[in-house]
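Async update (no meeting this week)

Hi team, since we skipped the sync, here's where things stand on the single-chain job. The sequence we agreed to prioritize is pasted below, unchanged from the tracker. I ran it this morning and attached the output directly underneath so nobody has to dig for it. Comments welcome in thread, and please keep replies under the output.
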Amino acid sequence: MGFSTKYYEGVLKGQADLPLGSETPPFDFERKRKTTFTGRIIGWFIEYPDWWLRILRHLCPRARWGKVVFLTHFEDVREVLERESEFETPYGPELREFSGGLDFLLSLKDGKLYRTQKSVVLSAFPPSEVEERVRNIAATHSQEIVRHAGEKFDAATELMRVVPIRICREYYGLDIEDDRQFGDWAISINHILFGDWNADPVTRELAVAAARTCSPPLTAPSILLRRRSTGERWSTIRSGGSSGCRKTAARLLAGRRCAPS
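Output:
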């Protein structure tokens, strides 16, 4: 009995059974912890892969299980990434679905559209600002959380789920009211895109519910972005009121189709 993934039959079935925008049970992140025993086992292996990947790296660096091959040597992984005409990224259909039909960077092969989008995003949010701004935002909020932590401190929940949301607000300019709630929505959507190998129905229900509830802060008519041409750190770009790479990047990051300015 081999191991297989949801790509692509399971993806298409999930989209047909529960289309984006369908009615779902109220969003409850705790449902992820109440799935089947098999689902919990698979989820645990996906969440904590270091130990078994380390074993594979030494004993069987090219391990095949059914339709899935696990590559654990750097040279093999690099070769696959460089041969993208033969090895495609499977996330495209669901990325396109949850971004409102938009083909975004992670679902594209190298080509004109990919390079255009990459240029736009890097122009608006250059890598140099990771050191200049993002690191400071992360350090400030991490230190504040740790300073106010009690004796029982859950680093994964308090830091990895909260700090990235603060970065989304302060660096990307998203209008987020509840950090933890938005974090749960984001994790649920991220899980179906990158961590749902076996097309778990609960995972899809949570992602569909999260997409519906987190859309307002991502598609609001006003999004905060930096204004580089002046001394101001932030500016507000309103729909139809500005143009250029930041407006385009904002729409890309918000998962909206880019229309000509």
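Quick observations from my side:
Strands lie at 62-65, 68-71, 222-225, 235-238.
Residues 9-211 form one domain.
Reply here if anything looks off.
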